Every structure is written in C-alpha cells, then in structure tokens.
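Ops channel
N.P.: pipeline sanity check, posting one input/output pair.
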C-alpha cells in the first residue's frame, strides 16, 4: 500500500470557529467555544473564574478497540510510554514539571479512547500546553529500549496488582473473551494479556503512535480560569505546526449475537466464595434505549429497594448481588452478579434469578421507580459540574464520542423522558427470553459448583487481522518559528482565596463551622458524634462494635423500612451515609439545595428513630464475616489488616482494624448495638460542618434536630506512646502463588498531628523522599526498575498518635532486591539529606498546589473541619507557606535525622509467596518471623 505521509498545514491557515455556547437562564449547560485547527485538531475551551485553576485534557480517539489478536494491551502500554519524555522533555521530567508547578496529572485508557490530563494553577497553562504538544509531535526520537522495557514491566505489575492477584479480578477478562466473537476488539481487557505484552517491540510502539496520535484524531479541551483567545493562541502556537496524521474512520464491527445460552467457568485462586455472573449484550453509548436500560438495571439490582437486594441479600442467600449496565462506543453489557453465601449452589442462584425476573414482570414498574431514577441521575449530573476537571471531562468525552460537546442538557432531558413503558419495553427487547453468558467463578474444593456445564469456547476460525494502515508510516516532525526547547515560564502567582467561613457554638458544646458556596445548588452537612473506634477499647473481645453500629444505623427506622428509606432518598437525589472514624460516628448528608428540608427530615428520622432488628443484625454480621473470609487470600487486605497490630501491639485499640476481626465479630450481639446507641451516641462535643448553597442563619435553623440527640459525654481511652522497636524485624505472611509481595514498613513516631509544628515539617521533608511521584523511592522502584506500579511512604497523624508507613506491591521475584533498595535509599537520605534542587522542587510544588486545595465541597469541608477539630487559626495555610518557604537544607536534614525510620529499628511486613521469596529475605540478615493470616506466629 502507499505510504501514509502527513504534511504540515499552510502557515497562513487559521483556526476555524465552530460554535460558542453560552449559559442562558437556569438551563444546565457547560459554556464553551469550539475551534478546529487546520491540521484537524479540535479545541474546546471553557471559561470559569470560580477558582484559580486550569484543567487541560487531551483525548485521543484510540483505545484497546484499535488492537488486534496477539497485540492486546498496546493502547494502555502506550499510555505509559507517553510519560517517559519527548524531544524537549527529559526522562522522568514530565511528572516532575507538573508536580513542581503545583499540579496533579494522570492518563487513562479504556476500550475507545486514551486521555491525558492535568489540573494546575492558572499561571501554569502555557507550560501544560507545551508539554502536551511536545509528546504529540516529538515523542519517537526520545523512545529508548530501556524505557520500553521498564514500562513493560510496570504494566505487568499493574496487571498483577489490579487483576491477577485479587478475588474476581479476571471475571471481566473471561466475560469479554466469551461474550464477543474471536477477534472482536472488546474480547480482551484494556490491560491486555501478559504474553502479548511480552511479544510487542519498539517498532510496534512507533507505528501505533504514527497511526493514531495525530492531531486530527485528538481533542484538546481547556477549562478554568482562562481567557479563551489566549488559550486559542497558545494551542495554535504549540500544536498548530504538528502535521496531520493518517485519516481515522470509525470502528465498525457487528454487535455480539448469542444463539444459545453460553456456559463457561473459571477457577479463582484468590476467592473464597463462588460467583455467578450473567451478561446480556445490549446497546452502545448514545443509543435511544441507553437510559431506559440503565433505569432497568437500577430497579433490578441497585440499592436496598432493588429486587436483587431484597431477594438475595435481605433473605441471606448471597453476600452481594447487583445489576449493572455499561455502555461503550461499540456495544453495551447488562450484567447480573451474585456472590452466594457458603453452601449455596450457583445453579440455585440461577433459578432464583429467574424467579426474581418473574416477580419483576408481575409487579411492573412504579412511579417511585421512575422518580428515584430521574432525580438521582439529575443529582449525579449536577454533582459532576462541581469541579473544572468534571466539566472539562464531560466536554471532551462528548466531543470525542458524539462530535458535540454540548450534550449535558440533552442527556438530562433523555433521563427525564424515561417512562415505565420504556423500561418494560427494553426489558422485553434485551433481557426477557434472550440468551446470555453464564460465567461460574469456582473456588478450590468446589470445582463442581457450576450454574451449568461448560458448553462454549470461542472459535478461532475465520479470523482475519484488521488492516489498520501501519505499512509505510513515516515520522514527520513539525517545523517551528520558535525554540521548543525552552520551557515556558509561569507568569505571576495564582490568587488563592481561602474560603471565608462562619462559626457557631451551640448548647452541649456542639461546634458548627460553615461556608457558603453557590457554584452548584448543593448542600453538604457532616455531623461528627464523638465515640467511634476508640470506644472498642472498653471490650477488646468485641472490637468492631462501633463499625457495626454505624452499619446498623443505615437499616430500619421507626417510620421506614431500610428499603423505603432508600426510595425516599433516591427520589430526592440525596445521600445520608453513616460511618465509623477513629473517635467519632460520622454522618454525611449531601442534597440538592431545593431538597434540603426533606433530606433533613430523613436525617432526623435516621438519627433519632433507629430500629435495631435481629434480622438486620444477623444479616450484616453474616455478610461482614463472609466478606472478611473472602478477602483472606488478598495480600493487600492481609497487609493492611495486620500492620496496625504489628506497629501498636495487639493490645492497643489503635492497632485493631476498624471492622474488627472474625473472632471479635463473632462475639458481638444485637444487645451490644443497642447499648452503643444508648451509652455512646450522645450530642455533647459534637462537631458539625456545613458547606454549600446555604447561608449561616438558615443552616443553624436546619440543624436544630441535632439538639434532640441524647445529652452525654463519651469517655475515650488514653492512648499511650509506643516504644520504638528494639531492632528491625521482618514479619512474613505466606500467600501461595502471589505474583506480588505487599510491603508495609514503618514505626510509630508518636508525633501527633500539628499543622504548624514538626508534623508539618516532616511532611515537607518526606516529599522528595517518598511523597511525590518523583520521589527517590518511586523513581527507583517504579520508573528505574519497573518492579512496582507505585511506591509511597509518608507520615500519618491525628490527635492521638502518629506513624510513618511505606507501602507498595512489589514484583515477587524482586522482593529482596526492592527491600535492599528501600533500605539503601532510606540510609542515604537520612545520612546525607536533601539536595538543594529537591528542596526547591518541594517548595515550588507544595506552595503552588494550594490553588487546588479549596475547589470542591469536600475540600472546603476538610479545610473547615481541620480548623474546627484542631483549633487552628484561620490563616494557618499562610503560616504553613511561610514555614515551607523558610526551610533550609539544614532544617530538612534535621527533621529527616529525627523522624525518618532508623533502618535498624523498624517494623517490616511482607505478604507474598514464601516459595518464591523466603530464601532471599532470610539472606538480608534480619530476624524473620512468619505469621499466619490472623497475625499469629507460625512455629517452624
């Protein structure tokens, strides 16, 4: 075939304005301007001056659907390579430049697109556009074999961490393989197969870039505190000369058609419980039936009022049961998932599904079903407009897949147009009597627990690899009239405005803090009732009572069943969530402002009128225990559960899991829940934070119901300091077959949270060591060695204690080498300290990042709650910046010497495959103690 050669556009060509969309009245819309550059690049600009931030998104219309048999996972692998430098950006500099600018960044790949994005202070816009353009137009000459191999190893570790080494991690892969025809681009996961990752080479990478990463297959979307004409000028400068790539036409493949029920099975080495996954092929994104099917999925299997919850979970047939609908560019999938309790047969679950569907057909669809779907989706859409990144992401996705950024109003109208008749119609069209894929997930010892005998295997016959036009591609660089090697400098500094707030002290020493913000019509209220995990100290044999109490508070009330309560919330598009913190039961309320009164009435009912039934208690207890057992083979779960006990000792409440353990949960009775409410759920010293579209006086009035809570003070236990370990000990837990070893390393610092003291200074010191992406630890273990998907270390602290913890999932056969590297890097940093360059990077990055601290409601709430809980001055961020900017190399090194772990006196927990790593660990010379999965010493 002829070579595909791209040419630069004429110098005199100008961007073409396609449209300008403005906000009119109360219409929900994201205002923007849309342009197309002569080289085919689409540019969408959203102007929003509410925060001193800019979000840049570059979306390429290519994902794993542009791959082929034998080369799966390449789109995602290529995403990793796009962060490895380009002609004018050195290796490992992309993350550093953005982090130093006070920004955050990432990239994601799915079936149909790959996007790269960053949120930065508004003075860093030009630098971001320069970075993105450099890798669009100038990537390939910077690609080296070493970078290629390191990122290939990193992707393998990501697959191990997210798919291969977790319960049910491969369910999606097996489903895709058997639902779609052989060779269909959806028949493999975006992460790809290991054998395919091993097969690809650098030439494959270069061809992929040349074929799909042209400006005519991309959309640059910029939103935030910007001037649209300035944005357009900068985009034209940096992207305009990049040659147009080969033409890209839409993917066209037939939808999957099943002509009989397909039964397949898989063995899961990590799951303790079997699972049944039933999948029906449905419709792609933007199909007229999309929202009706989404509503059907909600009615059948989402929330406490759903058919699946009431039948499977409420009647204690299953630990979990749900229904979901996913829509992507080429197809849709309607999935039912049931994880039964031990002893239940998957074939019986299948029969019960048939019964549930028959009940649904008999009962039909209620007005409440439609109302709660419409209102909850409306709330979801409005909540998505809270951040500049959320708005930009919507614009970018709609342009990429629908050719029109202005779809939010249309989508809301389509949601509101869903009727009962629509939902029943799509049920009859796509589900009732239709063939499906039945996947039985099997566990060891229950190999015969099948929903049906396997009767299907994908046929490989007739497959013909697609011709994507890779032959003859040539790399043609842009020719510029400016020097691209010069990094644009930031102009000025972002004008960061700390939220104004009000305070109010109420009776019983209840403290309220709040701020009004009307960017979106939403109100958030958090109520902190003193108690929480620390109260478990009164009865160690029943640790987990507080956490179970929080779960029970989401069940029946005097005037509502849990199911009816869920319906009322969904009809308002509101949420009331109750959870357990270290020293409090936390109640979080979120609602559209127009529904505040009704939501408050429900919150009052939930808090003042709970009904603790034996049925709900037995169900929650049973589900909690089975969930724990089902996680018992996960190295991450084991490491996270056991490390607290190793750090603080088994007799300290601070070291116990908030959820408790299997043995302590078994000891808890319904009377313990009732006693907690009677003795520990008291209003005295409560703390309340209000953020949203509500003024102070109105907020105080709405909170009057809190005074109806019983008075009383909860006594919390003393938390004495913990001695530093006398010597470093390695604790090891064996998980046979684990492809990765989970690392937890640290010690109890006893350094409590202090916004302006040593705790804050320790965070500054740790930033270049283990806190930033470009930290010494992450660069070595991930970027240089490719042993992990990520490595982090840092200080944690609250009013009671403080810790240092390093955590990572490391490739199993690199366990001893990675531990050696960690120890060497720790010793060097502790002995020699930070460099001037690292300190300057830290000061720039942490200082500039304040612009991102107050954008969202939860960020404002965290800021206010911190002031309230720790009695901080209103200007503590300014004081922190003063400390940051005045710190010298000597100051940082002093903190490092004092607070970083001593390599000879710390705790090391490793969870992995003993057969692969034991000998290497033993050779390191430390005492090694083997533990079982409950933390008990294993006798050798």
């Amino acid at each position: 075939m002829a070579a595909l050669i791209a040419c630069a556009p004429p110098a005199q060509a100008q961007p073409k304005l396609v449209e300008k969309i403005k906000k009119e009245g109360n219409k929900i819309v994201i205002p923007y301007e849309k342009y197309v550059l002569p080289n085919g690049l689409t540019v969408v600009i959203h102007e929003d001056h509410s925060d001193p931030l800019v979000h840049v998104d570059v979306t390429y219309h290519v994902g794993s659907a542009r791959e082929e048999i034998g080369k799966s996972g390449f789109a995602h692998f290529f995403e990793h390579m796009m962060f490895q430098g380009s002609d004018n950006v050195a290796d490992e500099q992309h993350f550093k430049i953005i982090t130093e600018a006070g920004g955050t960044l990432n990239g994601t790949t799915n079936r149909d697109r790959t996007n790269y994005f960053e949120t930065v202070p508004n003075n860093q816009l030009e630098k971001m556009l320069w970075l993105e353009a450099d890798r669009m137009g100038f990537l390939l000459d910077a690609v080296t074999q070493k970078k290629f191999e390191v990122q290939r190893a990193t992707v393998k570790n990501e697959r191990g961490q997210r798919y291969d080494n977790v319960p049910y991690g491969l369910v999606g892969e097996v489903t895709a393989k058997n639902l779609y025809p052989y060779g269909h681009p959806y028949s493999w996961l975006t992460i790809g197969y290991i054998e395919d990752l091993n097969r690809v080479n650098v030439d494959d990478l270069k061809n992929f870039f040349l074929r799909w990463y042209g400006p005519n297959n991309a959309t640059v979307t910029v939103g935030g505190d910007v001037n649209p004409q300035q944005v357009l000028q900068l985009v034209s400068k940096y992207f305009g000369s990049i040659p147009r790539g080969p033409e890209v036409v839409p993917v066209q493949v037939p939808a999957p058609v099943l002509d009989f029920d397909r039964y397949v099975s898989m063995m899961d080495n990590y799951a303790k419980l079997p699972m049944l996954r039933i999948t029906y092929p449905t419709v792609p994104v933007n199909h007229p039936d999309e929202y009706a099917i989404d509503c059907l999925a909600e009615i059948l299997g989402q929330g406490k009022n759903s058919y699946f919850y009431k039948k499977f979970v409420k009647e204690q047939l299953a630990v979990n049961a749900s229904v979901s609908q996913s829509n992507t560019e080429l197809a849709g999938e309607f999935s039912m998932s049931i994880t039964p309790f031990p002893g239940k047969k998957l074939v019986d679950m299948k029969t019960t599904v048939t019964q549930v569907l028959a009940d649904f057909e008999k009962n039909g669809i209620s007005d409440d079903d439609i109302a709660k779907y419409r209102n909850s989706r409306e709330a979801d859409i409005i909540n998505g407009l809270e951040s500049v990144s959320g708005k930009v992401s919507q614009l970018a996705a709609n342009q990429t897949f629908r050719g029109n950024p202005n779809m939010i109003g249309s989508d809301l109208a389509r949601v509101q147009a869903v009727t009962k008749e629509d939902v029943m119609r799509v049920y009859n069209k796509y589900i009732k009597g239709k063939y499906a894929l039945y996947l039985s997930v099997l566990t060891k010892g229950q190999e015969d627990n099948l929903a049906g005998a396997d009767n299907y295997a994908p046929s490989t016959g007739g497959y013909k690899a697609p011709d994507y036009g890779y032959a003859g591609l040539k790399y043609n660089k842009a020719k510029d009239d400016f020097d691209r090697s010069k990094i644009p400098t930031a102009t000025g500094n972002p004008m960061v405005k700390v939220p104004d707030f009000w305070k109010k002290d109420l009776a019983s020493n209840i403290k309220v803090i709040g701020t009004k913000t009307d960017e979106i019509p939403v109100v958030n209220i958090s109520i902190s009732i003193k108690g929480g995990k620390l109260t478990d100290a009164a009865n160690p044999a029943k640790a987990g009572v507080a956490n179970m109490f929080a779960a029970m508070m989401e069940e029946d009330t005097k005037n509502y069943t849990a199911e009816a309560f869920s319906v009322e919330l969904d009809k308002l598009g509101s949420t009331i969530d109750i959870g357990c913190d270290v020293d409090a039961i936390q109640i979080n309320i979120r609602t559209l402002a127009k529904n505040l009164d009704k939501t408050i009435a429900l919150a009052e009912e939930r808090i003042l009128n709970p009904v603790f039934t034996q049925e709900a208690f037995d169900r929650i207890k049973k589900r909690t225990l089975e969930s724990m057992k089902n996680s018992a083979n996960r190295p991450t779960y084991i490491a996270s559960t056991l490390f607290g006990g190793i750090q603080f000792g088994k007799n300290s409440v601070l070291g116990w899991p908030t959820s408790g353990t299997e043995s302590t949960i078994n000891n808890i009775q319904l009377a313990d829940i009732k006693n907690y409410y009677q003795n520990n759920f008291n209003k005295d010293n409560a703390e309340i934070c209000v953020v949203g579209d509500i003024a102070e006086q109105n907020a105080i009035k709405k909170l009057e119901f809190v005074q109806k809570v019983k008075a009383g003070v909860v006594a919390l236990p003393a938390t004495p300091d913990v001695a530093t370990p006398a010597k470093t000990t390695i604790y090891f837990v064996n998980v046979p077959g684990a492809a990765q070893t989970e690392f937890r390393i640290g010690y109890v610092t006893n350094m409590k949270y202090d916004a302006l003291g040593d705790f804050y200074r320790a965070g500054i010191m740790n930033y270049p060591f283990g806190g930033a992406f470009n930290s010494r630890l992450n660069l070595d273990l991930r970027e240089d060695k490719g042993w992990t998907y990520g490595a982090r270390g840092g200080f944690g602290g609250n009013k009671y204690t403080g810790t240092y913890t390093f955590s990572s999932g490391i490739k199993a056969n690199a366990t001893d080498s990675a531990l050696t590297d960690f120890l060497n890097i720790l010793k060097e940093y502790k002995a020699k300290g930070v460099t001037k360059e690292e300190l300057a990077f830290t000061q720039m990055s942490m200082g500039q990042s304040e612009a991102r601290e107050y954008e969202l409601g939860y960020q404002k709430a965290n800021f206010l709650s911190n002031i309230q809980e720790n009695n901080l001055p209103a200007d503590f961020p300014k004081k922190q910046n003063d400390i940051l900017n005045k710190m010298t190399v000597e100051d940082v090194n002093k903190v490092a010497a004092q607070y970083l772990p001593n390599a000879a006196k710390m705790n090391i927990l490793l969870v992995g495959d003993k057969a692969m790593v034991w000998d290497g660990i033993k050779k390191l010379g430390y005492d090694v103690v083997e533990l079982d999965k409950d933390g008990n010493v294993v006798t050798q």
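N.P.: looks fine end to end. The chain has four domains: 16-239, 262-442, 502-708, 729-931.
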